[in-house]
Inverse folding.
């Protein structure tokens, strides 16, 4: 409930918070599209979502009407932009939630993108299979199967979301040949401990969903009560790595403010050098030597020089 019920803390803006912390609006060459990375774009096809997460990085636009609403003409302009920019290989369809569109509208967008020879990969980001699993109908999966290679990123937060109905929805998507990955936001007092995250990632794997990203919560306005220290995410990854299969370990990332992109943050297992030996620390605290007589591991400062 904490993820969707408004609280008074949302009226308090802390240092570094703003409505668009990732600088998406400044990387939007046309309405409804974000072009932050050279070969891939984010296509925003709707501002409607079936659930309004209080930590949503697009809270400034999701559910909006008026000038912030995504119009059909905006989608056409965005599709034209993708068609004209042949360096774009990968399109992430998001919103809002693109699965809130009706089947015909969604297929129209997929069809147009698939006709572009330079667009190799299509991705859909959605929380509908988690909060409205009945949306994943046989008719929808038949549509999605026509546009492979197509991947889906599902927004899971807590193991309690893995109900039998959600499991059935994931099974329908997986049986349609759609690779499934999860994108989970680290949230204070919701999933910020190793035990909860372990239950979640194990449950995801059982349902053929690869734990893909664990996000540090974006600093949207009024989100301080949701955000943990970055060190908490590192602690959770350390508690997963080696203690369970590598398939269950997501990449912990900070989506850098002002358009810096996703930056992975990981525990440091390099203890240093001793002579020509690289000293490595294992998941259980043991120290091991690896013969490495070449150049020492570069630091960030050395890379920049």
């Amino acid at each position: 409930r904490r993820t969707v019920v408004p609280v008074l803390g949302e009226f308090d803006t802390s240092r570094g918070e703003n409505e668009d912390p990732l600088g998406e609006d400044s990387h939007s060459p046309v309405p409804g599209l974000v072009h932050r990375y050279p070969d891939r774009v984010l296509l925003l096809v709707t501002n409607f979502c079936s659930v309004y997460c209080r930590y949503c990085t697009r809270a400034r636009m999701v559910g909006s009407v008026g000038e912030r609403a995504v119009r059909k003409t905006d989608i056409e302009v965005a599709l034209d932009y993708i068609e004209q920019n042949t360096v774009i290989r990968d399109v992430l369809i998001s919103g809002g939630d693109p699965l809130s569109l009706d089947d015909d509208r969604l297929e129209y967008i997929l069809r147009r993108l698939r006709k572009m020879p330079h667009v190799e990969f299509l991705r859909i980001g959605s929380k509908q299979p988690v909060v409205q699993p009945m949306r994943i109908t046989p008719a929808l999966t038949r549509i999605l199967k026509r546009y492979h290679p197509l991947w889906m990123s599902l927004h899971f937060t807590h193991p309690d979301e893995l109900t039998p109905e959600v499991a059935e929805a994931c099974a329908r998507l997986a049986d349609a040949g759609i690779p499934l990955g999860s994108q989970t936001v680290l949230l204070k007092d919701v999933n910020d401990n190793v035990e909860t995250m372990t239950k979640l990632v194990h449950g995801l794997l059982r349902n053929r969903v690869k734990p893909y990203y664990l996000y540090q919560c974006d600093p949207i306005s009024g989100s301080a009560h949701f955000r943990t220290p970055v060190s908490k995410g590192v602690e959770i990854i350390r508690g997963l790595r080696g203690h369970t299969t590598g398939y269950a370990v997501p990449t912990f990332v900070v989506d850098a403010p002002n358009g810096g992109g996703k930056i992975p943050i990981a525990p440091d297992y390099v203890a240093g050098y001793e002579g020509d030996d690289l000293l490595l620390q294992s998941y259980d605290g043991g120290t091991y030597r690896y013969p490495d007589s070449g150049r020492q591991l570069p630091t960030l400062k050395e890379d920049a020089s």
Observations:
- Residues 25 and 92 are 16 Å apart (CA to CA).
- The chain has two domains: 8-267, 269-305.
- The mean pLDDT is 90.
- The two ends are 49 Å apart (CA to CA).
